[in-house]
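Researcher: Structure prediction, please.
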Amino acid sequence: MAITLVNPPGLPQIDAYRQVSIATGSKLVFIAGQVAWDADGVTVGVGDLAAQVEQCYLNVGTALAGVGASFDDVAKLTIHVVGWTPDKMPQLMEGISRAAAKLGVTPVPPGTLLGVAALDVPEHLVEVEATAIID
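Model: Predicted structure follows.
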């Protein structure tokens, strides 16, 4: 495995993700921001943040698998949420948990959560991009 995830002493110990990833692989993989489209380009979960988060993570998983990688190889995630407010955190975490259960992983690499005004189409509420390292 090319990634080691750690929470160094002196930084907050956050359960949802790790503060630092150490990469030792030889290839960088950049996954474009994934929205809640299914394989046919149909939006999943219109109006449902948890369902869209789940689909975004499943799409990231599919993209990773397509290049011989998995969430174990992800060094960093960036999550863009339309109209982010802290009261949306339970829905975000529910979507991540549902995707993790389907993928059989616990995606906890360092991450950045950004509130944005809009995404590519009005019905998309979230977009998730990933950077991975593989050998």
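Model: Strands lie at 3-6, 20-23, 27-34, 74-82, 111-116, 126-134.
Researcher: Thanks, that helps.
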